[in-house]
UniProtKB/TrEMBL annotation:
Residues 345-355 have a biased composition (Basic residues). The keyword Metal-binding does not apply. Gene3D superfamilies: 3.40.50.2300, lambda repressor-like DNA-binding domains. This is LacI family transcriptional regulator. It comes from Catellatospora methionotrophica. Keywords: DNA-binding, Transcription, Transcription regulation. Residues 4-58 form the HTH lacI-type domain. The lineage of its organism: Bacteria, Bacillati, Actinomycetota, Actinomycetes, Micromonosporales. GO terms for molecular function: DNA-binding transcription factor activity; transcription cis-regulatory region binding. Transmembrane segments: none annotated. Residues 318-355 are annotated as: Disordered.
Length: 355
């Protein structure tokens, strides 16, 4: 898809390039009616006033864009993204590239940001997070021709190159560990169900319940500590409360640890807890949390390296990064003897939305 030029705007408005320059720069020399027609044509084509100058210079912006669909106030308490950004910056800085971070409220706004970046050449490429099946951002970026790399599963990345870590492998390791300890009632406090990596975790969890004859349930949340705490209270208030909980991020696991104490349960004697995406805070709480650990900073470095190759026009393919592996700590142990269900008990598998 060709970027619009000042000549394109002039042709669409039926005027000279000089008239377009006057109109876009607010200078006299064109009538109000002509100015409005030129501005409307520029808006329709997605033209920005400074794109012509940048195109004439022929220089890259040396900037990579990253958009995140989440409240800005949560970014500072989300260890995963802070570590990811540190890895991105580490690689980008060695190539004199900067990272442009933009918070958005939804995919429509995100696509509009991509369109603006593409039109005025603010960035040379973008990284895409939190992909969904049939994600409209993938089609939009492909159509623009803006170099992009997806941080997520290849199945949801279309023709764009992706870097991903197999969450199914990690979940198998966590569940098999809990089953080996003797847990038969295991719940998962999951993230946003529409995200591709969340779907992989949920599908794997359901399959393991069948294979290992476990009683399982998944409760979906928005990844915040508040929603994780609400989900934990619901699960621990049920008549057949789980003896182990797996959380889709560390913030919710820490909130769940506090809820367990609030309800008079001891971790790990009464309840075992596993957190996804290990962080320093997991080792500072009491007891320290068993967690699924990976080098997230290195993950960001590898993602930046892949995108820079795409920007340079090199052929790029999907990269399968190292999956998270279990780091057992003090929050997991065998379940209480009186909590063991009968092996003939019916298996319970469900996915529901946290209140």
């Amino acid at each position: 898809m060709k970027r619009p030029t000042i000549a394109d705007v002039a042709k669409a408005a039926g005027v000279s390039k000089g008239a377009v320059s006057y109109a876009l720069n607010g200078q006299p020399g064109v009538s109000d009616t002509t100015r409005r027609r030129i501005l409307a044509a520029a808006e329709t084509l997605g033209f920005r006033a400074n794109s012509a100058a940048r195109a004439l210079a022929g220089a890259p912006s040396n900037v990579v864009g990253l958009t995140l669909h989440r409240p800005a106030k949560t970014l500072g308490v989300e260890p995963f993204f802070m570590e990811l950004v540190s890895g991105l910056e580490a690689e980008l800085s060695t190539h004199s590239y900067a990272l442009l971070l933009q918070m958005v409220s939804g995919s429509d706004q995100e696509i509009a940001v991509y369109q603006r970046w593409w039109s005025d050449r603010s960035v040379d490429g973008v990284l895409v997070c939190d992909v969904r099946d049939g994600d409209p951002r993938i089609e939009a970026l492909t159509r623009m021709g803006l170099p992009a790399v997806v941080i997520g599963p290849p199945a949801a990345s279309g023709t764009l190159a992706s870097i991903w870590s197999d969450d199914g492998v990690s979940l198998v390791e966590a569940v098999e560990y809990l089953a080996a300890l003797g847990h038969r009632r295991i719940a998962r406090v999951g993230g946003l169900p529409e995200l591709s990596h969340t779907a992989i975790r949920t599908q794997t969890f359901t399959r393991l319940a069948e294979q290992l004859q476990l009683q399982t349930v998944t409760v979906c949340t928005d990844y915040t500590g508040e929603d994780g705490a609400r989900a934990t209270r619901r699960l621990l208030s049920s008549p057949q409360r789980p003896t182990a909980l797996i959380y889709d991020n560390d913030i919710m696991a820490i909130a769940g640890l506090a809820v367990a104490a609030e309800m008079g349960l001891t971790v790990p004697a009464d309840l075992s807890i596993i957190a996804w995406d290990d962080s320093p805070i997991c080792r500072l709480v009491h007891p320290p949390l068993t967690a699924l650990t990976r080098d997230i900073s290195a993950y960001g470095t590898h993602a930046a390296r892949l995108l820079l190759a795409a920007i340079d026009g090199k052929p790029v393919t999907d990269v399968h990064d190292e999956p998270a592996h279990l780091s057992p700590r003090g929050s997991t142990a065998a379940p209480p003897a009186d909590a063991q269900p009968s092996r003939q008990a019916p298996r319970r598998r469900a996915t529901r939305q946290a209140a």
